[in-house]
Design a protein that fits this description.
single chain, about 300 residues, alpha/beta, eight-stranded mixed beta sheet, about 40% helix, globular, binds 1,4-dihydronicotinamide adenine dinucleotide, KR_dom, oxidoreductase activity, Peroxisomal_Beta-Oxidation
């Protein structure tokens, strides 16, 4: 099974900058025809500029690849349908959907306006659902498809000031888990990438010691593999940052078993809580935001 994408058509949402741009460039280099979607707004989702998508299309063409721009917002069902329509009209098929578009509206939950909570869910979670909704029947019908969603350590571990973003990002994991089951029999596979990279979204957040390693192009190889025929997994989360890659997986402790035929009391639960809660036999999947990045780089003596 090849990692090449010759003859394949891919959509990358939010591909006008940052990670999406790097994904689009690599997919094109791997042989895919790429729909470069971006509405070209600010990091908080305000405004729009077609130049963002146009620039990346020009870059792909200059490198000898094929690409078409799309300026729809992922935030509406019509936007999602329009993006898929561009792939079908311009290139005649659709094999790969990389759901990457995203914004930030950070604030502590006490101070967060509900409008900012809703807006962030709308772009990340609903945006992914709208694009996937339009792509899904095409992929199921042709019995082939590769979908990637973009989650975050903010969702899997939490982060101060990102209740909206964390909810959206872990919501995407639930979305993926369900679609992984629904898509498998038709060879439509869906996985998540949990990236870390220097972009305008993370400006000033990445520690000095690792900044030099955090180019978005160090994330894209994972996305390009998940987008290829070679990908033989579904419903998994792949972490990718600074040249380090891993699999993030949830676990359950061995816990305790009471006799369910007898009444189970609160006191019984309280007495055994340490056995239910303790992580003696399992290792937490991350050490919190950016923790795993530092750990890997340190163990390779890179920082
Ligand atoms: P970025 O701000 O550089 O790129 C996001 C792109 O999405 C922008 O070009 C923007 O115009 C576009 N976009 C925003 N709303 C859109 C909409 N409604 N429709 C179409 N396009 C839209 O940010 P970055 O860092 O490249 O983020 C890409 C994805 O990776 C996001 O989903 C983000 O949440 C996620 N992520 C990034 C991390 C990082 O370390 N940079 C860490 C974890 C997740």
């Amino acid at each position: 099974m090849t990692t090449r994408l010759d003859g394949r058509v891919a959509i990358v949402t939010g591909a006008g900058a940052g990670l999406g741009r790097a994904h689009a460039l690599l997919l094109a280099q791997q042989g895919a025809k790429v729909v470069v979607n971006d509405l070209g707004g600010a990091v908080n989702g305000v405004g729009g500029d077609q130049a963002a998508a146009d620039r990346v299309v020009a870059e792909i063409k200059a490198a000898g690849g094929e690409a078409a721009p799309n300026y729809d917002s992922v935030e509406t069902p019509e936007g999602g349908a329009g993006i898929v329509e561009t792939a079908l009209k311009r290139f005649g098929r659709l094999d790969v959907l990389i759901n990457n578009a995203g914004i930030l509206r950070d604030k502590s939950f006490a101070k967060m306006e509900l409008a900012d909570f809703e807006k962030v869910l709308k772009v990340h979670l609903f945006g992914t659902a709208y694009c996937t909704k339009a792509a899904w029947p095409v992929m199921v019908e042709q019995k082939y498809g590769r979908v990637v969603v973009t989650t975050s350590v903010a969702g899997t571990s939490g982060n101060f000031g990102q209740a909206n973003y964390a909810a959206a990002k872990l919501g995407l994991v639930g979305f993926m888990n369900a679609l992984a089951i629904e898509g498998q029999k038709n060879n439509v596979l869906i996985n998540a990438v949990s990236p870390g990279a220097n972009t305008r979204m993370t400006e000033g957040l990445v520690g000095d010691a690792i900044t030099a390693f955090m180019g978005p192009e160090n994330v894209s190889p994972a996305v390009a593999w998940l987008a290829s025929e070679a990908c033989n997994v579904t419903g998994t989360i792949i972490t990718a940052a600074a040249g380090g890659f891993g699999r993030l997986h949830y676990f359950e402790t061995a816990g305790v078993q009471f006799d369910p035929r007898q009444p189970i009391t609160v006191d019984m639960f309280a007495e055994r809580f340490a056995d239910i809660y303790g992580l003696d036999t399992v290792v937490p999947s991350t050490a919190g935001p950016a923790g795993y990045i530092d750990q890997r780089l340190k163990s390779a003596s890179l920082i």
